[in-house]
Give the backbone structure.
Amino acid sequence: MEAKIIEHIRQAQRGDQRAFQALVALYDDRVSNLIYSIVLNRQDTEDLYQEVFLKVWKKIKTFQFRSDFYSWLYRITVNTCYNFTKRRARNQTDGDDEIMNNIIYPSEENDPNKLETTKALYGAIQQLSPRLRTITVMHYLEGNTINNISIILRIGEGTIKKYLFRAREILRKELAGYA
């Protein structure tokens, strides 16, 4: 870890809100993008973003520098998103249409064919279980290595590979008409 980040963490552990705000600024986009990639909804992303950093503020004193700070932050973010998706699944009845209508699809071009394919891909990813969706997003959309995912999620590399295989098979079936 960089000395600057270590110093911000130590100051935040002593209650320095400015140091904590500096940490938030450093990891702002990464956390926001991670949350969005799991829940695929802007409003939920904003709510969970606040929840994640509130948890981090409350727990920062427990960070012991045994791992990279981002790995620790990533774990809190993923767990918060998992808990949210479990709650939403229990409480959801006919909300799927609302969720799918609130997704913002990244598109570099205004090509309607690419947009349709992108919507289909995100729709298929949304159908994966939270764990499969997280690992798929971490590996294919964020470019994390299997080893890095294993460290962050505390899951064996073999299990990560098995989950990626399972996710690819599901996505292949869901997207058969787009190949």
Remarks:
- The CA atoms of residues 37 and 141 lie 8 Å apart.
- Confidence is low (pLDDT under 50) at residues 93-105.
